[in-house]
Amino acid sequence: MSVWKRMTLIFRSKANKALDRAEDPRETLDYSYQRQLELLSKVRRGVADVATSRKRVELQLNQLQQQATKLTEQAQKAISVNREDLAREALTRKSALAQQIADLEAQHAQLQGEEEKLTLAQQRLQAKVESFRTRKETIKATYTAAEAQTRINEAMSGIGEEMGDVGLAIQRAEDKTAQMQARAGAIDELIASGALDDASSINAGDDIARELAALSSQADVEAELAALKGGAAPEALEPGGAILSETQAEQTKDQA
User: Fold this and answer.
1) Residues 48 and 129 reside in one and the same domain
2) Which of 139, 157, 175 marks a domain boundary?
3) Residue 97, Cβ neighbours under 10 Å: how many?
4) Which of 94, 187, 225, 239 has the greatest count of CB atoms below 10 A from its CB?
5) Domain housing 235
6) Residue 161 and residue 58 in contact, taking contact as beta carbons nearer than 8 Å
7) Mean pLDDT across the chain, nearest whole number?
């Protein structure tokens, strides 16, 4: 297969796919119904034209028949007054009219036959158009219902284009949330175990020193509170971290 043929085949296949995607069966059915209505209208006009021609021939035929009847009466009247020459002239004219009447009768019969055929064709076409219209509306209603059901199913299942994007966004948000929660939990565990120092406690000593400092601060608070109340001095804190009584604290000072 040549390159040009392959390009033509690809173009045709893509164009056919695009047209198939753009085609709406409801619009196609409406267009077909409109064309059938136009054809039916043409047939009706044809029937009307034939009927008009037949009626015109009937009028001409009636006129010729009236003239023939008049000529017959004139011939009879001429014979009654012994004018054979006038009677012969009237009968001659009647004979010419008889030929025209015969031709018009044949034409009238032909037109009447054509009118009957066209009328029958019109009736059949009209019945076909009515049947097509009923079927068209049924197909359109079924297609609309199927389209709506498909969209509803796509929305509920999340396989639609828009719902698919929403689903991906929700999935990404859930993944990021889970990742942040896991990171926060891991940091909390590291801080609790002491593997990761709190930034506010940097250069504040080790964990033992920090605990002793906290106890000393608590003893100072208790001492100041007792002084405010006018009570006894609070128990002192020995270097090892244990709380000493007042007597033990004095002995410690003497030994020092």
Assistant:
1) yes
2) 157
3) 19
4) 94
5) 204-255
6) no
7) 77
- The answer to whether 103 and 87 have CB atoms below 8 angstroms apart is no
Same domain, 123 and 8: yes
The DSSP secondary structure of 174-197, one letter per residue, reads HHHHHHHHHHHHHHHHHHHHTSS-
Give start and end residues of each alpha helix (H) in the chain. Answer: 3-22, 25-80, 84-157, 161-193, 207-229, 246-255
Q: Render pLDDT for 183-241 as a digit per residue (tens, 0 to 9).
A: 887 777 777 776 655 555 555 455 666 666 777 777 777 787 788 877 544 454 444 44
Rounded Cα distance, 73 and 122, in Å: 45
**Which is more confident, 137 or 11?**
137
CATH of the domain at 32: 1.10.287
238 domain-assigned: yes
Taking the C-alpha atoms of residue 23 and residue 86, their distance in angstroms, rounded to an integer, is 80
Paired tokens of 23: 């085609």
What pLDDT score does 55 carry? 92
Same domain, 100 and 211: no
Residue 181 forms part of a structural domain: no
Q: Is the pLDDT of residue 59 over 90?
A: yes
Using the structure block, give the residue that is written with the tokens 């014979």: 79
Domain count, the chain: 2
Residues 122-138 have a mean pLDDT of 91
Last residue of a domain, one of 157, 180, 215: 157
* Ranges 60-74, 140-154, 187-201: which has the least confidence: 187-201
Q: Which residue has the tokens 């009466």?
A: 73
Mark whether 37 and 144 lie in a shared domain: yes
- Does one domain contain both 11 and 131? yes
Please report where in the chains the tokens 């796919």 appear, as a residue. Answer: 17
Does the pLDDT value for residue 95 go beyond 50? yes
